[in-house]
């Protein structure tokens, strides 16, 4: 199943008979043509390369890895390997350069403002900042039900609208039985049902991949997936995927823009995230900033001009309207390094253990697991 996160919703839509949708992932080969409802569950942070470690605490995933149940394939997320970018790539089927959600935080062109996509509400307007149609909208326009079971706190946010607009939302509370909520939507009738769970990624950030807390979160995810598989109604399939993987960054592999004058010189706005930095420079300073960063981060990051970064194709085709959202200088960490910005970002960012965002296989490779109600 070669492909990317951009292919998941079109393939699911094709299973449901949506006009113009193409199943490039070959899903019909393993679920047949009797499917009239599809669940897509995105497990935040469940990278492909983490599956063997996850399996220690996850019996269902262990069975999948052993070939005992489901069908397992490898996909790639889009770059940067960060949740806002991936969710919008999933929802639209488009590359980041096209939809414009090019990182966890971005400079709003023409200002010194940094937009945090997780905290984004309605400024800028979501249809302006991300104007591409979603597959939820496309399905609804063809008369196919498209539903999303999401935490109530997500509703009305800019990111939710940018990634999922067109879906009929079922809000949930922390105390709700999430598996039951998703199953109820599947039982309600044909169509697409989307679900999302963040606990694994939260544990990775706060406690580190492989920590006891991360394994506890893995067990919770596995139990959720197992209940959903067991409850699949007739003529249904469930696709389980992720938005990115991750890795732990040790203290000695961290540098801080705001404590190193060589890195701070000439920088006007800092955006991106610790594994991918977008630097918007003072007038005329871009070349000097790029040279200084390349020297200081030699062996820790690849440092590009905006033009060089775009030319690599890492963002996919870039709409000219989105170019200015990319920094004048782009630094992409390699290995297990991270570039902190303690003077620009909340202090908890520097205390994280698990990170993602860059282009290593550990961050970019994601699974696609296909289950169906036919065994």
UniProtKB/TrEMBL annotation:
InterPro entries membership: Alkaline_phosphatase_core_sf, Phosphodiest/P_Trfase
Top-level taxon of origin: Bacteria
Gene3D superfamilies cross-referenced by the UniProt entry: Alkaline Phosphatase, subunit A
Gene Ontology molecular function terms on file: hydrolase activity
Name of the protein this chain belongs to: Alkaline phosphatase family protein
């Amino acid at each position: 199943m070669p492909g990317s996160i951009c292919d998941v919703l079109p393939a699911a839509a094709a299973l449901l008979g949506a006009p113009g949708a193409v199943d490039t992932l070959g899903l019909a080969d393993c679920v047949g043509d009797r499917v009239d409802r599809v669940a897509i569950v995105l497990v935040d942070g469940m990278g492909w390369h983490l599956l063997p470690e996850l399996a220690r605490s996850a019996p269902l995933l262990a069975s999948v890895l052993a070939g005992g149940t489901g069908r397992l394939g490898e996909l790639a997320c889009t770059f940067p390997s960060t949740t806002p970018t991936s969710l919008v790539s999933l929802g639209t089927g488009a590359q980041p350069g096209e939809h414009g959600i090019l990182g966890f935080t971005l400079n709003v062109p023409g200002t010194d403002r940094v937009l945090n996509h997780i905290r984004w509400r309605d400024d800028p307007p979501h249809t302006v900042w991300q104007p591409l149609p979603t597959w939820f909208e496309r399905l609804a326009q063809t008369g196919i039900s498209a539903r999303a079971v999401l935490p109530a706190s997500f509703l009305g946010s800019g990111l939710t609208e940018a990634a999922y607009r067109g879906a009929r939302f079922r809000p949930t509370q922390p105390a709700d039985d999430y598996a039951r909520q998703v199953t109820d939507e599947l039982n309600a009738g044909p169509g697409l049902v989307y679900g999302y769970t963040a606990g694994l990624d939260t544990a990775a950030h706060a406690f580190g991949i492989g920590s006891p807390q991360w394994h506890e979160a893995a067990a919770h995810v596995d139990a959720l997936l197992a209940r959903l598989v067991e409850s699949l109604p007739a003529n249904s399939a469930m696709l389980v995927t992720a938005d990115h993987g991750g890795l732990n960054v040790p203290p000695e592999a961290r540098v801080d823009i705001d404590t190193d004058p060589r890195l701070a010189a000439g920088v006007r706005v800092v955006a991106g995230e610790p594994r991918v930095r977008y630097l918007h420079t003072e007038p005329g300073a871009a070349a000097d900033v790029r040279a200084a960063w390349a020297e200081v981060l030699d062996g820790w990051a690849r440092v590009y001009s905006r033009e060089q970064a775009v030319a690599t194709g890492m963002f996919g085709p870039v709409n000219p309207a989105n170019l200015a959202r990319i920094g004048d200088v782009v630094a992409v960490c390699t290995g297990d390094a991270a570039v902190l910005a303690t003077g620009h970002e909340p202090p908890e960012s520097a205390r994280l253990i698990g990170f993602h965002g860059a282009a290593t296989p550990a961050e970019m490779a994601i699974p696609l697991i296909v289950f169906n109600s036919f065994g």
